[in-house]
Amino acid sequence: MINPSMVPTLDPNPLPAPYWVFKLLLLVTFFLHMLAMNFMMGGAFMAIAARFSSNGSEYRNRIFVDVAKKIPTLLAATITLGIAPLLFVQVIYGQYFYTSSILIAWPWFFVIILLIAAYYGFYFVAYKGKRRPGAAGFVLLASLALVLFIGFIYSNNVTLMQVPSHWAAKYFANPSGWNLNLSEPTLIPRYLHFVTAAIAVGGILLVLLALARWKHDRDYARHLFQFGGKAFMYATMAQFLVGMWFLVSLPRDLRMLFMGDNTPATVLFSAGLLGTVAAIFLMSDALRKDNIRVAAYGVTALTAFIILTMVIMRDILRDAYLEPYFHPHQFPVQTQWAVFPLFLVLFLGGVALWLIMLKRYGLFTSTKPTDI
Q1: E strand or H helix at 13, and its extent?
Q2: What is the 3-state secondary structure (H, E, C) of 96-158?
Q3: Which CA distances in Å does 153 have to 105, 174, 185, 212?
Q4: Contact 98/8 with Cβ under 8 angstroms?
Q5: Cα separation values, 26 from 20, 34, 69, 89, 309, Å
Q6: Residue 182 CB coordination number (10 Å)
C-alpha cells in the first residue's frame, strides 16, 4: 500500500450539493447508461448471430435488418446516457480517475476515434444492410469489435483507478502513456461479466421485438421469441461461471463483503443471484408455453432489477478498494439551492423526453416483410 499522501489532493472547490446527491445521481445515470449499452451491444451480437447463422432460416436475414437499423439509435442513447455518470465519477473520484486516465493516456485518447469509426460502421449497416447484407454483416462485426475494444479500455481504466498502490510501478515501468492494466487479475472476468450480460439483454431485445409483432406476424414473432429467449437463457447461464470467476479473482477481504462481511452487499448479491435463477426459469417456462407476455414483461423487469443490483454492488466494491484513501466526509459542500431544483427538473424532463422519443421512433417495433 502506498502512502495516501501520494494520491492527488482533493479538489478544493466545494460540491454544489451534498455528497450523497452526487452518489445517487451517479448510480441512477449509470444504471440508465447500462440499459442502453446492453441493448446496443447485445443487439449487435444478435444481429451478427442471425446473419452468420448456419441454421439458414428464412427469417434470419429479416432479424439482421430489423436489429441493425436500431443499433445507431441505441449507440446514441448509450453515449448520451453515459456522459452524466462519467461527469459524476469525475466529481466524486476525480483524483483517482484522472490519474488512471493519464497512465493509459494513448488508449484512452483513441476511444473517441474508435467510437467514431464504429458509429460510421453501424450507420452503413443500417442504411445498406438490406441491399448489401453480405458486406453489411462483416462491417457490423468490425464495428462491434471496435465497441468491445472500447469497453476493454474502459475496464482497464476503472480497475486501475481503484488501485493507487499500482500507479507508481506502472508509470515508472512505462511513462509513455501506452499502459493497460493487464496484470490486474479481475480485469478479464470483470470485462467478460459485462459482455455476457449484454448478450443476455440482446436476447431480451428480440423478445420485445417479438411482442411488437405478436398479433400481426405471429410466425416471425415466434421465431424472434425463440431465438432471443434461448440466447437470453444461455448467456445468463454463462454469467454464473463468469460471475464466480470474477468473485474468486477479488482479494479475499473484498470478496467477503458479498459473503457476509457487509450486510447490504451480501443482500444485494443474494438478491441478484436469486433474480438471475428466477429469470432463467421464467424464460424457460415462457418459451415452453409460448407465453410472450411473461417473457417480455416479467423477464425484462427481473433483468432490469438484476442490472440495478450489479450497479450498486459495483459501487460498493469501488469504495471498498479506495477505502484507505477515499474519505467522503472531507468534501467541502456549498449547496446551491437555487440551481439544484432546476437541475432535477431538467434531468427528469430529459429522461421523460428520451422515453417519448423511443416510443415515437418505434425502437421496439419490427420491420414488415415488404421492408426486407
Answers
A1: none
A2: HHHHHHHHCHHHHHHHHHHHHHHHHHHHHHHHHCCCCHHHHHHHHHHHHHHHHHHHHHHHHHH
A3: 10, 17, 15, 36
A4: yes
A5: 10, 12, 30, 7, 14
A6: 8
| Residue 135: per-residue pLDDT | 87
Among 68-77, 219-228, 361-370, which is the least confidently predicted range? 361-370
Q: Which amino acid, one-letter code, is at 30?
A: F
**Single-letter code of the amino acid located at 176:** S
Instruction: Provide DSSP, 243-307.
Output: HHHHHHHS-HHHHGGGGTTSHHHHHHHHHHHHHHHHHHHHHHHHHHHT-HHIIIIIIHHHHHHHH
Confidence at 372, pLDDT banded by 50, 70, 90: very low
Length of the chain equals 372
Cell numbers for 7: 494520491
Reported as a single tens digit per residue, the pLDDT across 246-298 is: 999 999 999 999 999 999 999 999 999 999 999 999 999 999 999 999 999 99
Q: Are 205 and 261 in contact (CB under 8 A)?
A: no
Amino acid letter at 335? Answer: T
Read off φ and ψ for residue 94, nearest 5 degrees.
Answer: -55, -45
Tens of pLDDT along 118-128?
A: 999 999 999 88
Phi/psi at 261 (5° precision): -75, -25
Assess whether pLDDT exceeds 80 at residue 365.
no
Sign of CA dihedral 138, 143, 146, 150: negative
Domain spans of the chain, in order of start: 13-320+345-366
Please give the grid coordinates belonging to residue 321: 478498494
Residue 186 burial (CB < 10 Å; 0-12/13-18/19+)? buried
Over the chain, what is the mean pLDDT? 92
The label of the residue with cell 433474480 reads 275
> For the purposes of burial, counting CB atoms within 10 Å of the CB of 329, is it exposed (0-12), middle (13-18) or buried (19 or more)?
exposed
